[in-house]
Amino acid sequence: MKEYIDSFAVFMSKEGQKSENTISCYCRDVGKYMDFLGKNGITDIADTTKSTVLTYLLFLQKEGRSASTVNRNLASLRSFYTYLTGNSIRTNDPTLNLEVPRNDRKPPRILSTREVERLLSAPDESGVKGIRDRAILEVMYATGIKVSELVGLDVRDVNTGAGFLRCRGGVHERILPMGQYAAAAIDEYLDKARPELQNNMYTSALFLNCSGGRISRQGLWKMLKHYKEKAGIATDITPYTLRHSFAAHLLENGADLAAIQEMLGHADISTTKVYSKLVNSHIKEVYLKAHPRA
């Protein structure tokens, strides 16, 4: 059955609606689904039913996978079965009208402004690595940029004078505004650190690792974990924590929800509305703690 995965990738690429990162992710999800089918004695994709797909999704839930991971797997399988039916490999689509029992979704972890300040101040800027890391952290918090977009940035994507950067990590290009602190941190990095890290004059990547290549997603996660510990932040945080904090702090200070949706690159505003609930909950908590007659 795994022979279908390569042609599935070609199908999504020709559709033109999925980024390379999404195609890779969907193929990986389908590959794990195939493994599950094989372990359960199903050797022909034509033998799968709605019950088969639902059983797999429930299996993922029992494995402790997050709601977002289970939903992404369903999206991957929907695309896969669309490919199968469109190419007459199957006559029907078992994912049609399929609903997955929803687990309660945990609210995203939001840093306080004080925690953000400690995190941004954690890099030691006496060395090139610290200058680079400060620039990365400033950009993440200033723009709410996705991890894939940040590691994909080239030098030409940044205009510090005008205060914006261009994201090309997804299907649709996005232009993000950038504040003076992030712009200044990038200017310092470009002036003092990047020339020291660069070992190939033709390298276009904005943020370089210590070997002179483009910084990786794994390197970014490792860097953030290091500075989280250095800043004395007790709970675990990820690159998405800064993205969530960017959105929540904007909303808390009066930013328009539609503008935040555009900056985050959300296709549906309902995804962005989670921050409204979070901010309202935070405001109520502050009120209850601070008001003398609460």
Quick overview:
The chain has 13 helices and 3 strands. By secondary structure, the protein is mostly helical. It is elongated.
- Could you spell the SSE succession in H and E letters? HHHHHHHEEEHHHHHH
Q: What is the CATH C level class of the largest domain, in words?
A: Mainly Alpha
Q: Any idea what the shape is?
A: elongated
Number of domains: 2
CATH architectural type of the largest domain: Orthogonal Bundle
End-to-end C-alpha gap:
62 Å
Q: Largest sheet at a glance?
A: 3 strands, antiparallel
As for the CATH topology of the largest domain, it is hpI Integrase, Chain A
Structural commentary:
The protein is mostly helical and 294 residues long. The chain is 58% helix and 3% strand. The protein has two domains: 3-86, Tyrosine recombinase, N-terminal domain (DNA polymerase, domain 1, Orthogonal Bundle), CATH 1.10.150; 113-289, hpI Integrase, Chain A. The protein contains 13 helices and three strands. It is elongated and about 60 Å long.
Comma- or semicolon-separated keywords:
294 residues; mainly alpha; DNA polymerase, domain 1; hpI Integrase, Chain A; 3-stranded antiparallel beta sheet; disordered C terminus
Q: Mind sketching the topology for me?
A:
Blueprint: H1 3-15, H2 20-39, H3 50-62, H4 67-86, H5 113-120, H6 128-143, H7 147-151, E1 158-159, E2 164-167, E3 174-177, H8 180-197, H9 217-230, H10 239-252, H11 257-264, H12 269-272, H13 274-290
Antiparallel strand pairs: 1-2, 2-3
Helix pairs in contact: 1-2, 2-4, 3-4, 6-8, 6-10, 10-13
